Amino acid sequence: MHKAESSTVDHAGHKPSDIDDMFEMFFGREGRSSKAIGMHGDLGWRPATDVYETDEEFVVQVDLAGMEQEQIEVYVDAGFLIVRGTRSNIAPTGKKHFHKMEIQVGPFERHVRVPSMVDARTAKARYDSGFLFVRMSRGEGMIEERRQVKIENR
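-> structure tokens emitted (154 positions)
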């Protein structure tokens, strides 16, 4: 199964989602170096994230397998959705010889730009079966101050 590809590319061949990811990796949301804005150390992993629209809403789905709801924070802030937390290493302690090591643990933080045609004041979050879903209705409504979004139970 393939994800839908965007037909829009810039002069270097990057899709808008590629550009957003590069921006997020190298700069904070205000366009400065992440070291300059004092991000929390090396936030070295980025959970897989799908961002899509339906006829009624804007949806962000984040793969956070193995995490407890209490380990996740969700904020809306000046045109961005911010999801952050820390995934613990639940592997048994002791000596191990890894043949493959792909599951990333530790702190993470994802910033997703919220389009202007979305009312961020309507943000609702739900954590279900290892996925965080954040939904916002269409409409005008930018949030200028950071607001935490409570994560609802299934």
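The chain has one helix and nine strands.
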